[in-house]
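# nightly structure sweep
# worker-07 picked up a monomer target from the shared queue
# config: single-sequence mode, recycle default, output format = structure tokens
# input follows
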Amino acid sequence: MQVFETVRGLRQFLAAHRATNIRIGLVPTMGSLHAGHISLVHAARQECEVVVMSIFVNPTQFGPQEDFAAYPRDLAGDLQQAREAGVDVVFTPTVAEMYPTGFLTEVRVSAITALLCGASRPGHFHGVTTVVGKLFHIVGADRAYFGQKDYQQVTVLRQMTRDLCMPTTVITCPTIREPDGLAMSSRNAYLTPAERRAALVLWRTLQLAQARLAQGERHGDRLMATLRNAVAQEPLARLDYVAVCDPDTLCEVAQLAGTVVVALAVYIGATRLIDNVVLQVPPSA
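# output follows
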């Protein structure tokens, strides 16, 4: 496994491979790897001859009151996991390498970035699209792999690649969960034992949404009220948002039919967790 800290070094290494017309897969991460990240590597390994992982905690997607400084970091452990998973190349740039002195450019996607997580984290997705756009350009990846847990992020990145005619295909892989249903996340490491138990309210709420649809609920507002009440029953939880949305526009849906996304963000103590499910609304009787 090769490790590069500079854009120049990575590009020089990949140029020789690209000359042989092989497929390059990219798994962008912020490190603190877990089984969810490794599942993305396995998906890339099945479809691409060269698998590149980036490990970079991107400061531009964190707000001033968010956890950039405290975000979990374990580069040595991450490199070991990447090696064992079969990653070929790891890119570990510094902040100065990605945002050198005089950096003035930003990539922005409008509309869908103002909803859901974008409403409570203004500027977050501008940081995401800027850094991922750079990574796509640096690596020249044919495919890039992301987890469904970050459904809005994937939707935004697909919009970016379409609008800017980027040749990278964005692939969505299933959310990987703990045995009790909690979506795997690097931020789960922040949770105390009591908070870890309380965090199951996210999965229970998503399961409740599926059950209500199966029971015939077809009114978006009524379903969202039910889900908000479910989160409120957990004393350690504070709801950021819950939404039942169109899978493409992310706008809330009034009359439920076809495919919908149920997404939520919940603070468990000081830790903000997100999760979602994509559901098919059963035909009405």
